[in-house]
Design goal:
Strand content: under 5%
Number of helices: 6
Number of strands: 0
Radius of gyration: 49 Å
């Protein structure tokens, strides 16, 4: 009998040690579960905020795209006005301000000479002269031609300035070209704003994906720690049951009296076990009482 009692006492100590170990392990996993829950919730809150940023940038992009369409429409109208003004200017130019270009003979159509075409020819000759493309007698001919072109430009400009309708057409063309340029600038600004909003939206989308992956990882760790905590808790309950069974046998072997006080203590232990198995949280004092040796 003494040998059996000694064996049971050794088993009781071993099971008591295991119960303590499982309880500690369970508490550690429960702490990790709370930590991962906090991290997951914080990351999910960040994801929701980032999604709002994505939606905001998408709305800005759509607004800017709509503005681009409006500005393009305005620019298109400005382009039409420029064409109309140019056509009006061409029609108002008198024949005396237009002369056939030199060097065109035969059946070829002679191009009309305008101030713009003369300035273009003059600039071409000036560039050639600066590069030293004309030397000797040719240099004198080129210089003479440049003077003739300059004189012709002055005469044609004076003639155009004296023509009220032509002057008005030129003014309309200038205004139309200014409006055209302003409309083009507005289109570029709106298009740039739309592109910036689109790029920022893509960046927020990437951040959403990154944070969502972190949140999912935290959730996986949460499930893992909860599973381990539940497993350790199960082993803890089994250990307590074994411990109580061994203690009951030791009491019986010691011939302990079964007075009211002892029955009350046993009922209290059973109540604590019922609470523990039903998922209730026990205090440290109650947990130690479950493992205490009566």
């Amino acid at each position: 009998m003494a040998e059996l009692k000694e064996t049971l006492d050794e088993k009781r100590k071993l099971v008591d040690q295991k119960a303590t170990q499982y309880r500690t392990t369970r508490d550690d996993w429960n702490a990790r579960t709370k930590e991962h829950t906090t991290i997951r919730n914080e990351l999910n809150a960040e994801v929701r905020e980032l999604i709002q940023n994505v939606r905001q940038q998408r709305e800005i992009r759509e607004q800017m795209n709509e503005l681009v369409r409006e500005k393009k429409s305005i620019r298109s109208e400005a382009n039409k006005k420029v064409k109309q003004a140019k056509a009006m200017l061409d029609s108002e130019r008198s024949d005396k301000n237009e002369a056939p270009a030199a060097g065109h003979r035969g059946g070829r159509r002679e191009r009309k000479v305008t101030i713009h075409s003369l300035r273009r020819d003059l600039q071409k000759l000036e560039r050639e002269f600066e590069r030293g493309a004309h030397t000797g007698n040719n240099e004198k001919k080129v210089m003479k031609r440049m003077k003739e072109i300059s004189s012709q430009i002055r005469e044609m400009k004076a003639s155009e300035d004296s023509n009220g309708e032509l002057k008005e057409a030129r003014g309309m063309l200038r205004e139309a070209m200014i409006a055209q340029e302003e409309a083009h600038v507005e289109v570029q600004k709106a298009a740039q704003a739309a592109q910036e909003a689109h790029d920022l939206m893509l960046q927020w989308n990437k951040e959403v994906d990154r944070q969502r992956e972190h949140a999912e990882e935290a959730h996986r760790e949460l499930r893992k720690s909860k599973k381990e905590a539940d497993k350790a808790h199960h082993f803890y309950i089994v250990s307590l049951r074994c411990l109580h069974s061994i203690q009951d046998m030791l009491r019986a072997m010691r011939g302990a009296t079964t007075g009211e006080s002892q029955r009350g203590a046993r009922v209290e232990v059973q109540d604590l076990m019922s609470k523990l198995m039903s998922g209730d949280t026990l205090s440290t004092e109650e947990l130690m009482k479950l493992q205490s040796r009566d």
